[in-house]
Amino acid sequence: MKDTSGGSATQIRLRDYLRDELILPQRELTAQQELFRFVNEVALENGYVNEQFLPKLIAREEKYPTGLELEQGAVAIPHTDADTIVKEFVAVITTKEPIEFHRMDDPAHLVRPRLFFVLGLNRPHAQVKMLQQLAAVIQNHELVTLLEQAPTPEAIRATLE
């Protein structure tokens, strides 16, 4: 039986933070700000974030970029302050075309991901554990490709579970 309580510090599982309304495949978004506005609109409408989420997400991304270059391809894992999160979540968004993000490890360079994990976590230990879980996902090229190509929220959820 699946633990949906969010788990303890040692029991953080990606699948427990996936929210159906925040699994958003094959979106026609072309710019970082557009992506952020889109996820903010859906998350705010569904009670996951407060009004400060969007401005703080944008500010944090400018200061601490979240683009990651992979062996093949790229992903981005935008996130922001815990005080903007009402209910914890991990949003999974794919886009039809890549969106430019500055690299986390080298902000002077850009990556062009089509796969985005937006973290909405309000407990510090949860963020560290979730990043560990996501690292395992994004290091698997086949999994990243399946996620990028998934046509439906159900296909994304099935791939991640």
C-alpha termini separation: 13 Å
**Low-confidence stretches at least 5 residues in length (pLDDT < 50)?**
1-9
**CATH architecture term:** 3-Layer(aba) Sandwich
- What's the total count of β strands? 7
Please work out how many helical segments DSSP would assign. 5
Evaluate the radius of gyration: 14 Å
* The CATH superfamily title: Mannitol-specific EII, Chain A
Domain PTS EIIA type-2: 16-161
Protein name: PTS system, galactitol-specific IIA component
Pfam families: PTS_EIIA_2
Descriptive report:
It is a single chain. This protein is α/β, with parallel strands linked by helices and 161 residues long. 37% of the residues are buried. It is 35% helix and 20% strand. It has a single domain (14-160), classed as Mannitol-specific EII, Chain A, CATH 3.40.930. The radius of gyration is 14 Å and the shape is globular. It has helices at residues 32-45, 53-63, 124-138, 141-149, 153-160; strands at 18-27, 67-69, 74-76, 89-95, 101-102, 110-111, 115-120. The protein is built from five helices and seven strands; from the N terminus they run E-H-H-E-E-E-E-E-E-H-H-H. The chain has a five-stranded mixed beta sheet with strand order 1-4-7-3-2, with helices on both faces.
